[in-house]
Design a protein that fits this description.
This protein is mainly alpha-helical and 269 residues long. 52% of the residues lie in helices and 7% in strands.
């Protein structure tokens, strides 16, 4: 009976002090539901607004004493945004740059541990730019030190270094080509020699003669000239064209390069 009376007195005293059900349950060593049911039974209701009012008054007193906002948040156990909100309502002016300067060692330690600027800025209630500028002054530049999975340096906004990005792009192009070959009509017997014979050796873009002899050999590598024949797709493959006899024509190498993947004039069809 004495134990129950002692617990009752503790609960009533804690409620009057503005403590929450969770804090009371932790103090008594029981669960929160038991405390809330007991308070409801004896007619004591916990008002969270009263708790918030007490906390706001406590924040105001600390701000008036000149205590930094970050220290107030850590001591009371609330968010830094609540401290700034209460301070703005009571007309207190914050020097947010001091939040970084006063806790510079902690900011630098978090940056060296790999924490992002956004998380650090949210913790101290400042902007990402302020944190990055402060860290850069001490030789920590997360953007400059960002590296790709292959170990090469890369831009801060990039997902991969240029070499890896090109490799991924080439792989995607190969996959797209395989799908196109699988789904569309493909004539595998198309050759530049067969096309030369069919089109009588004339470029369909400029009407000039194509020449297989327009090539030179340099260091074991054959370099084709401008008039060397090539296979050109009338409707480019990138725009849904087929690799079929009805969609290919003979063209000079230079004419094919100039045309690229653009659509030819209607008069050429």
């Amino acid at each position: 009976m004495a134990k129950a009376r002692y617990a009752h007195d503790q609960i009533v005293r804690a409620i009057n002090e503005g403590k929450t059900y969770t804090e009371i349950a932790s103090m008594l060593g029981c669960d929160r539901g038991t405390v809330s049911d007991y308070c409801r039974r004896i007619g004591i209701a916990y008002n969270p607004n009263d708790r918030m009012k007490q906390r706001c008054l406590q924040i105001q007193d600390m701000l008036e004493s000149g205590m930094p906002a970050i220290d107030i948040a850590q001591e009371i156990g609330c968010s830094l945004s609540l401290v700034y909100k209460v301070g703005r309502e009571c007309g207190h002016k914050f020097d947010r740059a001091c939040a970084i300067k006063d806790h510079g060692d902690l900011v630098l330690a978090l940056a060296r541990q790999g924490e992002s600027y956004k998380v650090i800025a949210r913790k101290f209630g400042v902007s990402d730019t302020s944190v990055s500028d402060f860290c850069r002054r001490f030789g920590i530049d997360k953007n400059r030190d960002k590296v790709c999975v292959c170990g090469e340096p890369m831009k801060a906004w990039a997902k991969r270094c240029p070499r890896c990005a090109q490799r991924v792009e080439n792989q995607a192009r190969k996959v797209k080509r395989r799908v196109r070959i699988k789904e569309q009509l493909i004539d595998k017997d198309i050759t530049v020699f067969g096309l030369y014979k069919r089109d009588s050796g004339r470029c369909w873009l400029c009407g000039g003669e194509c020449d297989f002899e327009d090539k030179v050999e340099r260091s074991g590598v054959i370099v084709c000239g401008d008039r060397y024949p090539s296979i050109d797709h009338v409707l480019p493959l990138s725009k849904g064209g087929e690799h079929s006899w009805r969609n290919v024509k003979l063209a000079h190498r230079i004419c094919n390069s100039i045309k690229s993947d653009s659509n030819p004039p209607a008069s050429r069809f």
